[in-house]
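Fold this complex.
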Amino acid sequence: MKQDAFSKLHPAVNLLFFIGAIAFGVLLQHPVYLLAGIFASGAYYLFLNGRKGLKNILLMIPLFIFVTLFNPIVNTRGVTVLFSYLDRPYTLEALIYGVAVAATFVLMLLWFGCCGRVLTGDKFTCLFGNLAPSLSLLLVMVFRMIPNLLQKAKQIIGVRSSIGKGTAEKSSLKDKLNSGMTVMGILTSWALEGSITTSDSMRSRGYGTAKRTSFMIYRMTATDWILSAVMLVLISVVIFFAASGSMNVQFLPERDITPIKGFNAIGFIAYFGYLLIPTILNIREVIQWKFSESKI
Amino acid sequence: MEIFRIENLSFSYPASQNKSLDNVSLKINRGEYTVLCGKSGSGKTTLLRHLKTVLTPHGKRTGEIYFSGTALKDADSRNQSSKIGFVMQNPDDQIVTDKVWHELAFGLESLGCDRKTMRSRVAEMACYFGIQDWFHKDVALLSGGQKQLLNLASIMAMQPEILILDEPTSQLDPIAASDFLNTVRKINTELGTTVIITEHRLEDIFPYADRAIVMDSGRIIADGAPRSIGKFLFEQNNPMFTAMPAPVRVFYNANGNGDCPLTVREGRAWLSKEFEAEPDIKEIPCENIDEYIESPALSLKELWFRYEKDSPDILRGVSLEVPSGSISAIVGGNGAGKSTMLKAICGICRPYRGKIKVFGKPVGKFRSGELFRNCISMLPQDPKSLFVKNKVFDELAEMTKDKNRINEIAEICHITDLMNNHPYDLSGGEQQRVALAKVLLTEPKILLLDEPTKGMDSFFKETFAEILNELKSQGIAILAVSHDVEFCAKYADRVSMFFDGQVLTTDSPRKFFGSNSFYTTAANRMSRHVFTNAVTAENVVELYCKNKGGAQ
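Structure:
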């Protein structure tokens, strides 16, 4: 599996980035900030998922529109009434607020999508392995069990159909349920049987004889330290400006959006720069490759 | 210097009257490579499990085991975990974590090693076992052979003094198995680690072991150098003799003189010496198989298949005809697509081009379910995937309500005694026969077998072959795909080679294996410079005796 430039960093750096990006994404409702967030997360999402990513992003558009239009129906506050229906007002402010809610929603989908690709199971357990070794081992075993069971279920279904015990398309719902239950039954006993061997194998390799340590294949390099420092500085700047009120917005009952100009722009630039870190790293890698290629 | 000393060990499982181990006394010396052989159920696994406290089964026990001079039960578990390495049968279930690198480190993590030591040990092991290339992979993406190698490596990372292996290759194909066994041998010779191993596949181990121990019903009946064990078993007329490597079987059955050959090379040298002049009779007369099959039970024409739109083709124009009343075998490498072909016949995967006809009727014309009733049935590679009930009898009753028929089939498959057992409690060979019985209850006219001899020991193979012959005489068409060259050579009527997504040549086993020089049986490799078409040990013995005019 090929990793992008950002995924190759230490998991702690990845985690720090996503904590920042997701927390700010939820807290900052300022339209310009949301737009910047969607742009940055969208770019990175596309980078990670390629053509399939584009398809997923396009699927988010109807979701966006739905959430936007739906908000004024449940939320009737706001001073500018666009029209009324069933004695309920449909207001412009609520509509705009709907846009913000929808944007936050999409933004979260995108960031979590990226996060899932970057912080894979092993990185996650690596991070928390030392804090809670048993819990992280449990997680690892679950990660392994799920694909295993799915594969076995597929095998069993195939085998049963080849002795004429499968479900044809035409069979009744009751038959299908019955056959599903049978497959579940085999899977369970199979898994139990396997877990005896697994526990033997664990105890045979000294599980429970000493306090567990956890192995890391990742090491903090100079790049990791520098990037963490940069991220921490940018986060502080954003927090400072957020605290000073330069990102305040109010949608209801009346619109009041703090404009971004002059001194305030520094906060925005810090935020946008922070979100673009993964994309910048990837672009840098591409350019470096092209450059070294042209030398050959 | 001894590493293990077992004194008068007897053991019986709680619910059982019989002793699984009966007064076993044994010394294992440091650095020795010991192979433990015996039928399924002779107590091999029980004995091995006694050598590590955490794995020791519950039951009634007398006698004492000493590890490096101290009683094993007093040796602390931490010491035991790292110094006694234990590899089990099932490659999949032994693996705990989801990544290769994590699995390698698992034992060290449990022992509480610091990161620096772990890093260097893991790196060392990955290099020694050639795991670097798949170091970052998900465990789920590995082949069976790679998984078992990973299990071995993750145990070796703890630097054990002794390595205990309980039928480690029974789930692997022959090539992966011999790779694995070579690695074990390398560990023994290069690192001096003591090895105790149980195996069905004695051909790959026997010549290299320092010592062989034979067990029967919980007792040790022979213990000595491999060469002397072959002689002992032959003289005792012990059924274990059938599990000996082909050169040994040929040598004793032909009443050979001198030192018994253990490897193909030694076997060749022995035959060359015996036949310095060319032998008068060089081949066994054999009939040609009919190229043309009148109304084949099953015919495949130009099947093409791939799993996904962009993935490479697995079947690339498979054409095959299978006649009724005979055993057809298809041999070929791992992952060549043999099993996929069977799946295509059963409709589990659908070829995008080509025709499958069953008794002259295209499969598409069969109404749903009709194809598997009284027509086609497949015995899967893993018999466990067929079991759904708690009792063997219920298992069979799922297929038919006719009690007499169940009893008949149980009789044929030799499982009448097992009717009240839980299918999971049976041994591998027994499970295979129960699965076969279940499959046979669909009253098939065409029986498909996917790796039927996997994990079976040599006695079960013979019983199994008898069952197949019985079915054959009833006119059932049997199509088996298998890695087991020896089995196909001995029992099949027609053998085909599967390569590059196609069925290449079809011939009688004697012709087929007689003309191959690599992909053939050990007996053939050993005798091909003297005899032209001897493919089984029996063939070689027959020709040997004919030429020597000896009594046989």
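The CA atoms of residues 243 and 527 of chain B lie 19 Å apart.
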